[in-house]
Please model this.
Amino acid sequence: MRTGLYPGTFDPITLGHVDIIKRACKLVDKLVIGVAINRDKGPLFSLEERVAMVEAECAAMTEAFGTEIVAHPFENLLIDCARDVGAEFIIRGLRAVADFEYEYQMVGMNRKLDASVTTVFLMAEAEHQAIASKLVKEIARLGGDVSQFVTSPVNAALQEKFPR
Model:
């Protein structure tokens, strides 16, 4: 069984994340969505809310692709999380060259920590390349429409956080 780990804060999960998840499902038998507990980022949504959003977004994909998808909160090193869940692959989404520079450094460090785990990069589809959770939250906070960047349930959750 090929197991992949797709880590992130998912604060909130966007259509860009969903796109990467769908394509990652074609590469692995089991996909673990690693929901990072990153206190330094000061997430808008609690860990429980982010895990619930990921689970809700992935429920239909499990059936559609036949890939087991599970949400897994983690606060340790990414490479340790990969070991914990038995992942052979770390899946990373790329939007732009700036993403690659950071990710390239991460791959080098992760290889030094455990060379048995391979990192796979998936480019976001062109229509999703500009989507970033940070920008989605900012637009929502300022009363903008984020419906083209997130699913309806996530949009509703953002509207609860930022009532107009």
About this structure: The mean pLDDT is 93.
